[in-house]
Amino acid sequence: ISFGGRDFTLRYYAKVDPTARAQSLAAIVVIVGAALTSILCGLFGYVAYNNVRLSREIEARISFEARLSAVIAELNHRVKNILAVIQSIVTRTMRPGVDVDRSRELLIGRIHAMSHVVSLLSDSHWQGVRLINLLELRAIPHGDRIVTNGPDIIVSSRAAQSLCLMFFELAAHADAIANDREPNIVVTWTVGGKEPDTTFHLKWEELNTSEATRSNDNDFGTILLDRVAPEALGGTSKRYFTNNSYVYEITAPMRTVVDEVEMDRTRHLSGLPAKRR
């Protein structure tokens, strides 16, 4: 440009390079878009997670309520069974014409035996009881006079109740001896045969006694030993005197003594893990 006799050169420099500005703008758009996308994805993920969690909680609640209903039904069933057994014990123990003092003693002992086995079952979530625990001194009379011999067996709840009452009846009618701590009762049990037909055999032998000195089994004891206990275990029993001892034997299928089906059902109701076989 010529002005006033002089030549001037004008040059224009853009403050921002269009290419750089376009790149910066594109970067901003990408960042904002990524942020919005992340926020939206997070919101959708949060909603989806809460829906899944809520669905699982509802399923767990439904499952819990179903199991609770089953547990209550099972509890009602067992309470009714126990009350029926106690009613039978009271009815057959306190019969007209019996010795009141002796009957009261037997009644208290029988109910105590039932209470003991129920406590053991409760401690194990009704998953059975070790057979040897049914022969403890606190469960039956003359427990300190008993010598045991047999494998470690966990019997089912039904078998435990029958065996506990059976042991009480046998011990309650045992002969009184001069030294109450002298062992003279031998209880042995064995498991024989091959799966699935294994059999359980138990023998109670009271030494140094005879038919003349040993207390006679009363009506309740006779029915329990000869009919109720064998039927509960699905087996057979016999009792007899030898020259110097009283013997009671019971034989039953092992599958009824150790009822895996019952234990699995109780384990499921209790929420315990399945047993590995």
Could you describe the 3D structure shown?
- By secondary structure, this protein is α+β, with helices and mostly antiparallel strands.
- It folds into two domains: 17-77; 94-269, Heat Shock Protein 90 (2-Layer Sandwich).
- 52% of the residues lie in helices and 16% in strands.
- A five-stranded mixed sheet has the order 4-6-7-9-8. Strands 1-2 form a two-stranded antiparallel ribbon.
- Strand 8 and strand 9 (245-253) form a beta hairpin.
- The mean pLDDT is 82.
Secondary structure topology:
Layout: E1 2-3, E2 6-7, H1 18-93, H2 100-123, E3 129-130, E4 146-149, E5 154-155, H3 157-172, E6 185-192, E7 199-207, H4 219-233, E8 236-241, E9 245-253, H5 254-257, H6 260-269
Parallel strand pairs: 4-6
Antiparallel strand pairs: 1-2, 3-5, 6-7, 7-9, 8-9
Helix pairs in contact: 1-2, 2-3, 3-4
Total count of strands: 9
Number of domains: 2
Q: Under the CATH scheme, which architecture of the largest domain would be assigned?
A: 2-Layer Sandwich
Q: How many separate helices?
A: 6
**Overall geometry:** rod-shaped
Strand order of the largest sheet: 4-6-7-9-8
Overall CATH class of the largest domain: Alpha Beta
As residue ranges, the low-confidence spans are none
Would you tell me the structural class of the helices and strands? alpha+beta
Rg from C-alpha positions?
40 Å
Q: Kindly, what is the distance between the CA atoms of the first and last residues, rounded to a whole number of angstroms? A: 105 Å
Strand content: 15-25%
